[in-house]
Amino acid sequence: MIRLTAERTPAGTSYLATGQGQPVVLIHGVGLNKEMWGGQIVGLAPHFRVIAYDMLGHGASPRPAQGTELIGYAEQLLELLDHLGLTQAVVVGFSMGGLVARAFALHYPARLNGLAILNSVFNRSPEQRAGVIERTSQAAEHGPDANAEAALSRWFSREYQAANPAQIAAIRQTLASNDPLGYLTTYELFATQDMYRVDDLGSIQVATLVATGELDPGSTPEMARQLAERIPGAQAVVLEEQRHMMPVESPRLINQMLLNFLNRALAATPNVKEIVA
What we know:
Elements: E1 7-8, E2 14-18, E3 23-27, H1 38-44, E4 49-53, H2 70-84, E5 89-94, H3 96-107, E6 112-118, H4 126-142, H5 148-155, H6 158-163, H7 165-176, H8 180-192, E7 208-213, H9 221-230, E8 235-239, H10 246-249, H11 251-266
Parallel strand pairs: 3-4, 3-5, 5-6, 6-7, 7-8
Antiparallel strand pairs: 1-2, 2-4
Helix pairs in contact: 1-11, 2-3, 4-8
């Protein structure tokens, strides 16, 4: 079992790092923290240097300043890479983390050698946008766990919830324990930035994977396909019978998909050997 001790950058970002080789950075979703990536850390660390960190306003990282925009979250990742002495990394972003990964790719393209966007949002319909804005209002009024039960129902299958009550309870507690202002700042960006610099997405030149679950109601297959169409050469993957939290619910499936992608993304990188999973 891999046991890790969290470290901090000079700016206060809390992160975990393990493994050797090409760096792969994992960015969690809104309301969660770096601990959501346990299954991926175990699966990827034998092959890569895996880094997971707490987004601004989450976990043990500092709260974002009032009015922080999406670029501020990309700058947090830049500071982490600088602290670790990494010139480039493959960035894997889940949900809100996918928005941060997209922003990082647009603002700091030279620091990226692969991009994976999992269960993220793009080009919401008016109905979808109204729903997430309503959830933002509820979070502003009642706190980070205002929508916990509805969120868990969207995120996980009923079978998984029934079979893993302790884990579901822990995630519910994670949601409830978020800093209210940090959570709200992040959720407002999640609710409004799905079309962030949409006209510049064609400038992304690294290998890109856009994946979601067939049954993900908030990060739909159509969103994944539309986003992939905007990024040159991007691969769109829709995983059958998977819901939003597929990295947690189906880690082996997601790890195999990521290993296949990482082999492709890093194939042209000098001195990188292909991983046989």
